[in-house]
Write a structure and sequence with these properties.
Length: about 290
Amino acid sequence: MNGLVPPEHITEWIPGRKTIDSTAQGWRGITLMGYRYSGLEVEIPPMRDYMIVVYQEADTNMRRRCSGPWQTERLGPGDVSILTRGEQSTWQWDDAINVRHIYLSHSAISDTAAQIFDRDLAGIEIGDHVRTSDSMIPSCLAMLEQEYNGVGVGEDLFIDALRTQLAVHLIRNYANIAIKESHAGALGSVLRKAVSEYIEESLGDPIHLEDLASIAGLSPFHFSRRFKLEFGTTPHAFVIQRKIERAKSLLNMKNMPLKVVAADCGFSDQSHLNRTFRKFLGLTPAEYRRNS
């Protein structure tokens, strides 16, 4: 078979009796498998996904070799092995073992890492670990098995949460992350106009950073950085400035009640308008109106 090997084809390289298979569940980015193996020496092919092995019944010497010498660890129940993706290696053990495999897709890891660092990633590396003691992974496994054995309310959301939890855990404890150097400049005239028009049209409503970033097709992190280069201030400070300028214009209409001015400029109430005015201008809206 050419290319990277998905979890459902692993038995073509590691013969064993399958005890669990979650592929029919349609879980996104995560797969749960269970196997009973006799003592074997096998070539693990370049896998499509990262593989986490949790040993249920085991008392054996586990040996691994990639390009260098053999690595050997004594494994027992609750121990964990982690196998990287896209790399061939040889594994050997002498005794019968009962294991669970958790497979995490590359996108599950990379998308989570991008959210954590809010930066473009040059690469992610999670190396092989023949043995690690890690109480969190067996705990997540137990919850995965519970979902596998009985569908509950909100199964998809729960599985997504477990997938994210495992991805964050691997990134925190086992991954090397390379961040791309960013050379992005300011927003430019087209995006500046689009963002500015949106802000002006939405001053009476809550304006969220995520909404502004989506207009530019950027993450909130990248948008904030490029916005500041373009406007010389943060998105939040710019929006407040525009709300104040609009309020000043409305205050020149002497008959408009202050609570209407506050609502029309997107302040939660008149008190919010008063506090913001005093903070930025050093006087209240009423004082500004009297002086104008």
